[in-house]
Write a structure and sequence with these properties.
The chain is elongated, with a radius of gyration of 32 Å. Helix 3 crosses helix 6. A hairpin with a 5-residue loop joins strand 1 and strand 2. It is α+β, with helices and mostly antiparallel strands. The chain has a six-stranded mixed barrel. The protein is 45% helix and 13% strand. It contains 18 helices and 14 strands. The protein starts with a helix and ends with a strand.
């Protein structure tokens, strides 16, 4: 090892080039593997996570949606025989008031079975029990570890105290561990992980929203039950629901997804492709360093020949040269860890908020073990061929004056170096071509006309407390808020919408009927997404009005049954036809 270190020190430029090349390859591999390990290889932080699933509805036309209605959820829960438990949940925003500044929280409403299904115990207090769902008592709340630390200073005495959410008192009953997160983006959700959990109301009877599809569903399979068996049973249940309520469930079905597929199914293939791509980068680095070693070997032929003449066996020479290559690889891995740390930070920064597990990606023992293994394998790969080649030197030719020969040995060296150069260029061309196609696709996506302009547009979300019970109160609040925003010196225009473009909402898949046309059979009628906006919304987002007019001031102040439709809906032949909107929610 000391001799290897001295040899590398005598060639500082070569050593620096080799170490930096390997550091880039090893660092890229370590960064991507850390993400693959966290998302695809590590067990999910739930007890027996392989038995936990989510349930989706499949709408007519094959469109999947991860929400269902209260009525359908009850049917799934009460009629199935394949699940131990099924729970429903819904994400909302609530305002936390009381001590300190008011703060908007991401809150997950869930039925009492929720935490039992996930199999995660609190670090303080308890989670939900069936009695929490009964009326006549203060609603309960379970806090995330982050909220408990940030807002309440990690006080253990908080258990049993009350907090105020949207003007209502909630009793704190537990605190979840730091690693606990459960986030499935819903059309009606907040777009960020929950910070607090409370009981989901499940009213029955007149006035209850039984058919609106806004509930997510998670279940735990019984022992020995497969995902396919559970899906088949739920499809059978859904077929009965279609017959009982065809106006809501006709041509709908159900699908069961394992929890890992739910969380990471859309990123599995890209992550494996990225790991393969950085593997190519490492192979290029290996070919590059092997070529450098072969070039360096020409200046060491006399040294190697002299050692062989003094009695060094071939295995001893190969071992010495492999020691030098492994030292290069280990030095490259140390520097590569720095590159990996920067790469992980960049990946987490640009990742979607839905990938909540990515926030915990780091250089843990598994990743460090991977880096060490990659380093050793890399050292052997790029060091073995030069070591074997130089150990086959012709002693007579190598010990002559000048120490170099034009024999077949030199010719073999050139052929090996040429082969390494060809392989290096071939791998680089594959990567460059793939990267070029990816960048071109990305640029073309940026050029797609989305129908609105997001330049210099800021968005804010405001959820009013339950004290705003009447529509005139709500309208008056937003009108006043909008006027104040419009009068800010840096604001050019402002508008209101209930759900932003490209983001779902409770207006998704709202059915409608065209008056004067035959009514289609249940479940086969047209549907569309619905947004509630004011007249300033279109101008603020730069949405052009192709025909007709915008909403008038009177229509904004008083309930008027007028709508604006987009060009896609107009193409189906609606024109200025009257439309009766059948609100499912």
């Amino acid at each position: 090892l000391r001799y290897a270190f001295r040899s590398l020190r005598r060639a500082p430029v070569f050593s620096a080039l080799a170490v930096v090349s390997l550091a880039l390859g090893i660092g890229a591999n370590t960064a991507i593997f850390s993400v693959v390990n966290e998302l695809l290889l590590q067990p999910l932080p739930y007890r027996d996570a392989e038995r936990i699933t989510t349930v989706w509805e499949v709408a007519p036309g094959g469109r999947h949606q991860n929400t269902t209605s209260r009525a359908n959820f009850r049917a799934w829960r009460d009629q199935n025989t394949t699940f131990q438990n099924i729970a429903a949940f819904s994400d909302q925003r609530l305002n936390l008031t009381g001590t300190g500044e008011p703060e908007e929280l991401s809150v997950q409403f869930a039925t009492p079975e929720f935490f039992k299904i996930l199999g995660v115990d609190p670090i303080l207090g308890r989670t939900f029990v069936p009695e929490d769902d009964k009326g006549g008592q203060s609603p309960v709340a379970v806090l995330s570890y982050g909220l408990w630390q940030r807002r309440f200073g990690g006080q253990a005495s908080l258990i049993g105290d009350t907090i105020t959410l949207n003007g209502e008192k909630f009793t704190v009953i537990g605190v979840m561990p730091p690693s606990f997160q459960f986030h499935i983006k819903q059309r009606s959700g907040t777009g960020r992980p929950a910070e607090l959990w409370t009981i989901l109301p499940m009213p029955v009877g007149p006035g209850a929203n039984e058919r609106g599809r806004f509930l997510g569903t998670v279940g735990r399979l019984k022992d020995g039950v497969s995902v396919e068996q559970a899906a088949a049973e739920l499809r059978t249940i859904h077929a009965r629901l279609s017959e009982e309520a065809p106006e809501f469930n006709k041509n709908y079905s159900a699908e069961v997804l394992p929890l890992r597929e739910q969380f990471f199914g859309n990123v599995r293939r890209p992550l494996w492709l990225m790991l393969g791509a950085v593997g190519f980068v490492l192979l290029i680095a290996c070919a590059n360093v092997a070529n450098l070693l072969l070039s360096l070997a020409t200046s060491r032929e006399k040294e190697i020949a002299l050692r062989a003449a003094l009695g060094a066996r071939r295995t001893r020479l190969v071992r010495q040269l492999l020691t030098e290559s492994l030292m290069l690889a280990l030095l490259g891995s140390v520097l590569g860890l720095g590159f990996a740390w920067l790469g992980i930070k960049a990946l987490v920064a640009i990742s979607p908020r839905d990938l909540v597990s990515l926030q915990s990606v780091g250089l843990n023992l598994t990743v460090l073990g991977w880096t060490l293994g990659v380093s050793l394998l890399t050292g052997i790969i790029f060091g073995l061929a030069p070591a074997i080649h130089i150990s086959r030197l012709n002693l007579n030719d190598s010990l002559k004056d000048g120490g170099k020969s034009e024999s077949g040995q030199a010719s073999g060296s050139r052929r090996l170096r040429n082969a390494l150069v060809v392989s290096e260029i071939a791998l680089a061309v594959v990567l460059l071509a793939s990267a070029g196609l990816l960048i071109r696709s990305f640029l073309r996506l940026q050029q797609i006309d989305r129908g609105f302009n997001t330049d210099n547009v800021l968005t804010m979300v405001v959820r009013l407390p339950d004290s705003y019970r009447e529509d005139p109160q709500v309208v008056n609040f937003f009108n006043q808020a909008l006027e104040r925003v419009r009068h800010l010196p840096t604001v050019r225009s402002a508008g209101i919408v209930n759900f932003l473009p490209l983001y779902g909402g409770l207006g998704s898949a709202t059915g409608f009927k065209i008056l004067g046309r035959p009514e289609p059979p249940p479940g086969q009628g047209p549907s569309t997404d619905v947004r509630v906006v004011d007249a300033g919304y279109f101008g603020t987002l730069g949405i052009p009005l192709l025909r007709g007019r915008n909403f008038s001031d009177t229509e904004q102040r008083e309930p008027k049954q007028v709508i604006l439709i987009n060009e896609a809906l107009a193409r189906v032949g609606l024109g200025q036809t009257e439309i009766a909107v059948d609100h499912a929610d």
